[in-house]
Design brief:
Blueprint: E1 6-11, H1 19-30, E2 35-40, H2 46-56, E3 58-63, H3 68-74, E4 77-78, H4 80-85, E5 90-93, E6 99-102, H5 105-116, E7 127-130, H6 134-145, E8 151-154, H7 158-168, E9 173-175, E10 189-192, E11 216-219, H8 228-235, E12 239-241, H9 244-250, H10 252-259, H11 267-274
Helix pairs in contact: 5-6, 5-9
Bound molecules: 2'-monophosphoadenosine-5'-diphosphate.
2'-monophosphoadenosine-5'-diphosphate (ATR) binds next to helix 6.
């Protein structure tokens, strides 16, 4: 007997996740029967919980902080990009109960950029990535895959940036946080992956006067949608892409696979996620 697919998002905590809202919107919009549930799983219980999910009939799952690395280790099969990034955010369970792990964060990032700035090409010139946390890892992988000719990485804690650059082994150049403005005028793609700018707090200490209309600027922060960085970049004539689309597009491959329908990205969905 065919039953409606059940999918979960696993995190600890999980109440902040916007994934249930988004996937339920898509289920309703597509008229597909299915369930998408948030599950708060303590790290101590994560391995048991995940291994039991296929037996319980789940079709797959999203994983979020703090489980992304552990999910990769537990999975039976790992996609190349998830392997490179070292973390999983999307899991598929096959008919034999095997767990397939993927990471769609970089895909979400690039798809959002391409939709928001159709003229954008990574190959246009150097990229500067601000921040070296979890989000930066997927974004760096995506920029390398898109053949960005030169990547600069800077982080308040330089050691984290150095560790990340070493992992990728692709000639990423690490800059001191206080020295990031030295390359700014050469940069064609500028990406904020730090939490600075969230709720209008924090200062990236960028010399905005060096921004120009040959640059594309994007921010993973989407509260507010137009961060201080994007506001200044817009004034300087840069092509600006807000961060909400990254969250949305990273969810597309999972939804398509679990529920068998390509979901639509609509203004209504964007508004729903911001509400
Ligand atoms: P995630 O893994 O979700 O990306 P994270 O690892 O905490 O979250 O990363 C947050 C990023 O924002 C880091 O690059 C962090 O810099 P540090 O590695 O030095 O902590 C950056 N960040 C947060 N607050 C900052 C601040 N006040 N000034 C500069 N960078 C900041």
């Amino acid at each position: 007997m065919n039953t409606a697919p059940v999918v979960a998002v696993l995190g600890y905590p999980i109440h902040h996740s916007k994934s249930p809202k988004m996937h339920r919107y898509w289920l309703g919009q597509a008229g597909v029967s299915g369930y998408y549930v948030p599950l708060e799983i303590h790290p101590d219980n994560f391995e048991d919980a995940l291994k039991n999910m296929p037996k319980l009939g789940f079709r797959g799952a999203n994983v979020t902080i703090p489980h992304k690395e552990r999910a990769l280790e537990i999975a039976d099969f790992v996609s190349e990009r998830a392997q490179r990034i070292g973390a999983a955010n999307t899991l598929y369970f096959d008919v034999d109960g095997k767990i397939h792990a993927d990471n769609t964060d970089g895909y979400g990032f690039i798809t959002n950029l391409k939709k928001g700035a159709p003229e954008w090409s990574a190959k246009a010139g150097p990229a500067l990535v601000l921040g070296a946390g979890g989000a930066a890892r997927a974004i760096l992988d995506a920029l390398i895959t898109e053949e960005t000719p030169e990547i600069y990485l800077t982080n308040r804690t330089k050691g984290r940036a150095q560790d990340l650059a070493r992992e990728f082994d692709n000639g990423i150049e690490v800059l001191d946080w206080d020295n990031k403005n030295s390359v700014l005028s050469d940069v064609k793609t500028l990406i904020n992956t730090t939490s600075l700018g969230m709720n209008g707090e924090g200062d990236l200490r960028l010399d905005f006067s060096q921004l120009s209309n040959v640059m594309t600027v994007t921010d993973i922060v989407y509260t507010p949608l137009e961060t201080d960085l994007l506001k200044h970049a817009k004034r300087r004539g840069c092509t600006c892409v807000d961060g909400l689309g990254m969250l949305i597009y990273q969810g597309v491959p999972g939804f398509s696979n679990w529920f068998g329908v390509n979901p639509k990205v609509t203004d209504e969905l964007r508004e729903l996620l911001l509400s």
